[in-house]
Amino acid sequence: MADLKTELLDFATRLGKDAMLQTIGKDATTERGTELFARNPGDFDGRAKKVLSVRSRYNDDATDKVISSYHVRTLAEGGTRNGPQRATLGFSISTFKEGFGKGTAKRGEIDGLYIVVGQDSPRDRVTQDACGALIDVRSFEGVGFIGGIEGVTRIFRADNSMRVQIGYQVGCIDTSVAGDPLAVGLQLTAMNGLATQAIRLSSDTASNGAWSQFISANNGQKELFVVTGQGEITLAHGTAANRMTLAVNTQGFLAFRNEAGAEVAVMNQNGALSLNGTLRINEAAVSNSLSLAAVSRSVVPVAGGRLYYEAGTGNLVYHNGSGWRVLSSTAG
User: Fold this and answer.
1) Residues of the chain above pLDDT 70, percent
2) Is the predicted pLDDT of residue 282 greater than 60, yes or no?
3) Do residues 267 and 301 both lie within one domain?
4) Domain-embedded: residue 145
5) Could you tell me if 256 and 301 lie in one domain?
6) Cα–Cα dist 276/263, whole Å
7) For a disulfide at 330, which of 2, 90, 148, 314, Cβ 3.0-4.6 Å?
8) Is the dihedral of CA 164, 192, 104, 107 positive or negative?
9) 138-152, 191-205, 218-232, 296-310 — which is least confidently predicted?
10) Contact 101, 160 (CB under 8 A)
11) Rg (CA), the chain
12) Is 280 among the domain residues?
């Protein structure tokens, strides 16, 4: 059987000039220093027992063909049962801390996969994209569930019983449901135990990090739902020109602002509501009516600043704490 170096050299040869194999590290009992994630050439930033170093040529192909430094192609026959535990995998990685599950593991973080991408260009304002990972998942309809990412994160107690387990699926389409396929951008599931927060968005203000908007939902023409970095919520209808904003102002009061930014209604911490406009009540609909206590103007109310219905006259009256004022009269 050919050794790894021979196989990789043969692989590079079959790729033609698309990739040139530079160096291959060999298995060793001790790691050697190398540039694994270096920002600047020559920086020492890691150790590895085996290194595959490839230099890819300039991609001048204009017919949408990629250049890959390393590729694994799997032609799967399938299986008798469905489920992620019985899947055929194109590539798999397992990383376990020595002593896992026994309480004897040493300190230190471990990770399954780390991807570093460094993009640059001649700075000529021509867009040059880069992504840590590109995912393309495809299926024919009527097959079942597919997703871009599916995972489970779980915590065990010392006695190996489950404490918390959450599931997450990104870019999901389920064609097994009745009717149209169920397409979901993000699915988060509390699978076991009390999971605290399905979504958490934060700004690290201590290091001058901040989101201008925590959430922005738009229909391609305008924003319909926005949560700003200050916690303000803006709502709009798909066909309406104006928007309304719900916010807590600098006084700590709940305020409704119109498109122009003016506060049209404010509620303080005691529940008192102030309107900077006209209060309109549909008299024909009981559910939208304003119920007022009937009083006699000969009796001074306990507190001023309130509206009353005057018994006998039907007038709408207001007491400012020192005297009465008739706001509307049934006469005429």
Assistant:
1) 78
2) no
3) no
4) no
5) no
6) 7
7) 314
8) negative
9) 296-310
10) yes
11) 33
12) no
